[in-house]
Write a structure and sequence with these properties.
26% helix; 5-stranded mixed beta sheet; 20% strand; 2 domains; 5-stranded parallel beta sheet; 244 residues
């Protein structure tokens, strides 16, 4: 019987992909006992920055790390490279966790391209997942579309995924699995062929369904809810949350 890995990493061009099976302490995401499959996507320059600080003589400034997010976050309006830098991942706890992960990866040989061994390992991890979270950090549409589909099929569980690339012609097929990230109902309406996750300002009255895991409701978590799963997943309407 093939051994089930806990993490698989490879790079494609300037992007480092990491898929990890484990648990989360974030109660909004999943229960403490849930096995969560999460995908992370880094700019290779972020890995190089972490590698240059392995001696521990100096700390990595958080802004320096997120300034290098061009390859993995692309033109996201919340990124540091081309946006306002207000992504919810830009918090110290998330940052320190990602740096810790990259430090661990610096000890391994990371190969280029996704091979058959990787795909088998990802399938085995997916089969054991209670919940799948695409794009815990970075742009999940940078994953091959067929791999996203294979993970969903093998997982047989609920999943979430969000993208700021929904207006790009090359990204349209990802609408099957991911939500288009939008910032108002008007913005969501301008993105055709997608369900949207609408992040609203405090005084915005959106007609989308309120996120059950949001501070406003707090009646569920993402692993139980599963609404943010594109066209083929659970739910038919757009979902909203107050900007956070």
């Amino acid at each position: 019987m093939a051994k089930v890995p806990s993490r698989i990493a490879w790079h494609d061009g300037n992007v480092l992909h990491v898929i990890r099976l484990g648990k989360t302490t974030n109660a909004k995401i999943a229960r403490p006992t849930d096995k969560v499959l999460q995908t992370y996507h880094f700019d290779l320059r972020q890995l190089a920055l972490v590698r240059s600080h392995l001696d521990g003589k100096s700390k990595i400034p958080m802004s320096d790390f997120f300034d290098l997010d061009a390859a993995n976050c692309m033109d996201c309006p919340l990124s540091n490279n081309s946006g306002n830098g207000k992504c919810y991942t830009h918090k110290y706890m998330q940052f320190s966790g990602m740096v810790s992960m990259l430090k661990s990866l610096c000890k391994e040989a990371i190969h280029e391209g996704l091979d058959d061994v990787d795909r088998l390992g990802i399938k085995l991890m997916s089969e054991r997942a209670d919940f799948i979270r695409f794009g815990t950090y970075g742009e999940p549409s940078l994953l091959p579309l067929d791999l996203v589909g294979d993970i969903v099929v093998a997982g047989q569980c609920k999943w979430t995924g969000y993208t700021h690339q929904a207006r790009k012609p090359w990204a349209q097929d990802y609408s099957q699995y991911f939500m288009a990230s939008a910032h108002s109902d008007k913005d969501a309406a301008s993105i055709t062929g997608w369900r949207a996750f609408v992040c609203t300002e405090p005084d915005d009255t959106s007609t989308a369904v309120q996120c059950p895991a949001s501070k406003e409701l707090s009646v569920s978590n993402c692993s139980t809810c599963g609404l943010c799963s594109g066209i083929v997943g659970k739910g038919k309407k757009n979902v909203k949350i107050k900007i956070h």
